[in-house]
Please model this.
Amino acid sequence: MKSRFAHWLISKVSKWLLYEPSVPPSPLCDFEKIRFELRAADVILIEGRNKVSRIIRQVTQSSWSHAALYIGRLYDIDDVNLRTRLRKFYKGPPDEQLIIESVMGAGTIISPLTSYRTHHIRICRPRGLPREDAQKVTGFAISHLGMYYDLRHIFDLARFLFPWSILPKRWRSNLFTHNALKPTKEICSSLIAEAFSSVQFPIIPEIKEDNEQITLVSRDPRLFTPKDFDYSPFFDIIKCPMVAPVIHIAYPKSLLTTQVSEHTQV
Model:
């Protein structure tokens, strides 16, 4: 009975935190271009619009509040066993472009890329990652489908939205008591960081110097946030703006006068 009530409460809190207001499609990026540009193991950064996104932006000091891993279409997965596992979680057409993400209240799930059609999106591509390693990265994420999102994070975020004067001090979450510039330990990008760590691909490693030798030391994957993929020197940033910039070239007035005069003489 208790577990049933807890499940109900978690569902209600998650729904409230994840509710997105109806807004017109974002004009900042061209979704069709993004669909064309994507490759397996690309990281997709998303600027969310719900309450959770607002909190994550405040904590991480970044406009990117969510990260997802692009795995391609069903037939892009080389491993037959992974395709079979994928089918247990996805019942749609085989040509649908798919992403894997960790969503509060739902856990690690597979979603169609089109679910973020109206969002502001940026592509972060691991530079020089071989296709074989890209398959391992997507395979790692597929193997974690169904894992549940940490429940404490749900209530931490919910409590963070209430004014401190309403809730007792002992209810304040220690998740947000540190400096806002420091990343939280429980966030959507952790799974993606672990996937790249499985093939020893760096994101933002710690640099240690010893006897004039530089060594890259991996960080705890739980410490990464979406903005780290944008900041990483090992990921190329691909932007697909909705409208190409208009470049105005200002010519000196004297040059224009000279050109007109020469044309008149001819």
